[in-house]
Fold this protein.
Amino acid sequence: MLTEIKGLNEECGVFGIWGHEKAAEITYYGLHALQHRGQEGAGVVTSDGETLKVHKGLGLVNDVFKQAEFSDLSGHAAVGHVRYPTQGDGGIDNVQPLLFRSQTGSMALAHNGNIMNAYKLRGELEREGSILQTTSDTEVLAHLIKRNRKTSTVESMKDALQEIIGAYAFAILKEDKMYVALDPRGLRPLSIGKLGDAYVVSSETCAFDIIGATFEREVLPGELITISDDGIETTRFALREPRNMCAMEYVYFSRPDSDLNHVNVHASRKRMGIELAKESPVEADVVTGVPDSSISAAIGYAEQSGIPYELGLIKNRYVGRTFIQPSQELREQGVKMKLSPVRGIVDGKRVVMIDDSIVRGTTSKRIVRMLKEAGAKEVHVRIASPPIENPCYYGIDISTREELIAANNSVDEICDLIGADSVAYLSTDGLENAIVKDKTINQGICNACFTGNYPVSEDKQASISYTRS
Ligand code: AMP
Ligand code: SF4
């Protein structure tokens, strides 16, 4: 059995650049493009070849960085990080990149993912005398690298990476080099680009477009890349395994303009909508998507079904910056912060409401009620991914089975619970067809939260598919 991992469970964004005189500013723009991957905190560490400098804080990238900060962040190399709000420990100590200084050199780590055996490794490290400063799983890797006695950093890193189990994309900065590593199954996205002569690395390619960089290639599963003034060198720390890119990156997390493992996110979502319309058609007057992540799938559903796509719901784009939330009393009176129905579009209509996923079911319930209050005659909910029945151990905040509506209810029961006229989900085959265009190019996906087939388990690193009994 996989053990339930408690504690930090985060989806984050990493960015790095080597060989650019404005490394800190470029990283700021890169993090801006990755802001959707984490809003709790942001940080940048730079290297000028001799020392590492850090600036980080809680909040959005724009809140953490002001113009003055950049004059202190000199250097030709940088790594940056945006952090997702966590359920467990938060606070500035866990905001990344984590920076460790020592007489033999400093090291900054930016990580997206989850080290499943972090708790066990922490115990071992503490018994050997390490004093860990944060509750972040990322710190474990730093200690594993540091305690390794190999003469070269790359060899120490390879040993350390072989000890950790889970899903991870790392960008690590030392004074004279940057290192980039991806877990043996490639669960998390990570790409390399070029900006002039500089190398850039990012969780998502949308950050390359914003800074004017060109995509070079994906970081491969089990690959450790070293970037320095001598160029780029690659080695492996794990055998080549089939890739299992996280399906939820396509379904919900990544930006539509990003390409993950050679597949554009918007295009894959549109195909999810097309597959969904083929599998679960319904007679209706309009198709609408829950902004922003479901718009692409709604366009696909409308195209395939021939039912017109309409803007039936509007998102207030400033909601993330609002500190005064309505009280329960005001909420009950109908004060909504995030989404509003477009009455003129849905009034008197049979509406197909496309959402990318249902986790706990609270969002769908609220939106169905909202559309009905705005006059919708019928609301047919179509979900552009299969039912989420299993928790994620690989860094996405899909918490415990008890909270997952689909783990505890049939589709008919979900329909009753959210007050819809009908509910249908995309099949797992439909999801795979929408994402995997060519098995020789983008290979497989992880769909464990839908199927329970975990590609990596805590006791067997990236070797066989783990099937939950
Ligand atoms: P819920 O109300 O819990 O069912 O939330 C479902 C909505 O949250 C979906 O419409 C998604 O857009 C979004 N979502 C899906 N997965 C996650 C996640 N892991 N963390 C936060 N939001 C998510
Ligand atoms: Fe992504 Fe789900 Fe796999 Fe987690 S279990 S990595 S959310 S597909």
About this structure: The longest helix spans residues 265-279.
